[in-house]
Amino acid sequence: MTGERVEVIDPNFRVLETVPRSTAIRDGLRFKLAIVIIKNNKNQFFVHQRKASKKTFPLKWAIGAGGSVRPKESFKEAANRESKEELGVKAKLEYLFDFAFKSSHSHYKAKVFFGIHTGSIKLNKIECEQGKWVTASGLRKMIKQGVFCPDTALFTTKYLDSMRKNSKSKKRLVKKPTKKERPFKRPRRL
Questions:
Q1: Contact (Cβ atoms closer than 8 angstroms) between residue 51 and residue 86
Q2: Measured at the alpha carbon of residue 49, what is the angle toward residues 132 and 161, in degrees to the nearest 5?
Q3: Is there a contact between 46 and 133 (Cβ–Cβ < 8 Å)?
Q4: Which range of residues forms the domain containing residue 159?
Q5: Is the pLDDT confidence value at 182 over 70?
Q6: Does any domain span residue 103?
Q7: Which DSSP symbol is given to 73?
Q8: Mind listing the pLDDT tens digit for each residue in 126-180?
Q9: How far is Cα 13 from Cα 66, in angstroms, rounded to an integer?
Q10: Beta strands in the chain (DSSP E)
Q11: CA–CA distance, 99 with 137 (Å, rounded to integer)
C-alpha cells in the first residue's frame, strides 16, 4: 500500500509519532506489527511464499499473515485485517506473545496471535507467490533449510518451543497413581 503510515513506538509500545512506513524502515524506527499464526483442524500451519517483487526477503516463506498496525488501530484489529487481506481468513484470534525484531531491513515490535481456520484459503496473489499447509515438523525443517524470512524463523521457533514446553508440562501434571493411591479393587466373586 503506497503511503501507508505507521506509529513509531518506544520499547513499551508508547506512540512517539506517526510517519510513512517507508520512512520508518529507511530510518530504522521501531513500529508496530501484528502477526497471525493460522492452524487447521489437521494440526497443520499455513505458510506462504513472498512475491519475487517484494523489496525485503523476496521469495522467502512466512507463516500465516502479518503487517503493520495502522495509526489508531489495535493490534488485534490489525491481525484480523491482515488475515482477511492476505489469506481471506476470518478466525477467532488468541494473543500468544510479544516479539521484537531489528535488522537492516526492519525494526518492529509485534504482538503474535493464533487462530484456527478450517475453511479454504484465498491467497492474495499481489503479495504471495504460493501457499501450503505444513506440520510442526515441516515448519522446523523449513527453518533449518533457511527458507523462512529471518523474523519468521525466530518467532516460529519461539512458538514451536512454547508448544513443546506446554505439552511437556501437561504430561508432568498427569501422573500415574501409586499403589497406595489406587482405588480399592473388590475381589472377584466365584
A1: no
A2: 70
A3: yes
A4: 5-171
A5: no
A6: yes
A7: -
A8: 989 999 999 999 999 999 999 999 999 999 999 999 888 776 655 444 445 555 5
A9: 18
A10: 5-9, 15-20, 31-39, 45-50, 61-63, 65-68, 93-102, 107-116, 128-134
A11: 22
Beta-bridge mates of residue 108: 31, 101
Q: To the nearest whole number, what is the mean pLDDT of the chain?
A: 88
Q: Does residue 183 form part of some domain?
A: no
Summarize pLDDT for 39-63 with one digit per residue, the tens: 999 999 999 999 999 888 999 999 9
User: What distance in Å separates the CA atoms of residue 186 and residue 23, rounded to the nearest whole number?
Assistant: 77
Q: Compute φ and ψ for 38, nearest 5 degrees.
A: -110, 130
pLDDT for the residue 50: 95
Total domains present in the chain = 1
Q: 3-class SS at 83?
A: helix
Residue 173 to residues 166, 167, 176, 179, Cα–Cα distance (Å)? 11, 10, 10, 18
- H or E segment and range at residue 40: none
The per-residue pLDDT for 174 is: 45
Per-residue confidence (pLDDT) for residue 159, from 0 to 100: 95
Q: State the CATH number of the domain containing residue 92.
A: 3.90.79.10
